Amino acid sequence: KNRVNILGTEFDNFTEKQFHKYLDDDLDVNANKFIVTPNPEIVLSARKDTNFSEIVNNADYVIPDGIGIIKGAKNLGTPLHERITGFDTLQYLVDTANRKLLKVYLLGSKPEVIQASAEKIKKDYPQIDLVGYHDGYFKDESDIVAEIAEKQPNIVFVALGSPKQEIFINKYRDKANAIWIGVGGSFDVFSG
Ligand code: UDP
What we know:
This protein has helices spanning 16-28, 40-48, 50-57, 67-75, 86-100, 111-124, 142-151, 164-172, 186-190; strands spanning 3-6, 9-12, 33-36, 61-62, 103-108, 129-134, 155-159, 179-182. It is of the alpha/beta class. The chain has a single domain, classed as Rossmann fold. Strand 7 (155-159), helix 8 and strand 8 (179-182) form a beta-alpha-beta unit. Helix 2 crosses helix 3. It starts with a strand and ends with a helix. The mean pLDDT is 98. Residues 108-110, 136-137, 159-162, 164, 184-185, 187-188 line the site of uridine-5'-diphosphate.
């Protein structure tokens, strides 16, 4: 794999276009994939937390979300092709899910934010099969995990912030052959 190490986090080095092609292929074969989108803050916290660092580096795709990562890579003499944000990836996956008539599950954010995101999907992306959604302020995740396992979505968006979302995905990704992605605060933007 062509990866670039920035202070311990191993980033994939591809263009956004190549990345999208990989995702298309993954969706076509129902592959189980985990995407992390580290920004400089996440790189620094992974440096201090080996458990979190392992989770990040064992993800299938580690993409540079932030101009600080691109600048850092250049300064270290190992430039990355380009910035690829978590938000743009969410938008691409939503568009693709609508085009390919896929099943999607949304997890995380405040109740009103995830509700508004679900409504936006139903209205603007009518070919998506939205199989479920839940806010990110739960005490017990077992019902959520059971629902994901039962519905078998093709894409699971997890917006719990870092490192919560990555820990969640790492723990439960075997429950569905989906593309799992931690999207941080992206629903706050998507819903608005
Ligand atoms: N969040 C959540 N449950 C929690 C903590 C946070 O659902 O227990 C949500 C929060 O509502 C926000 C998102 O996680 O929508 C990400 O928050 P933040 O912007 O702090 O994360 P970042 O994008 O910087 O990773």
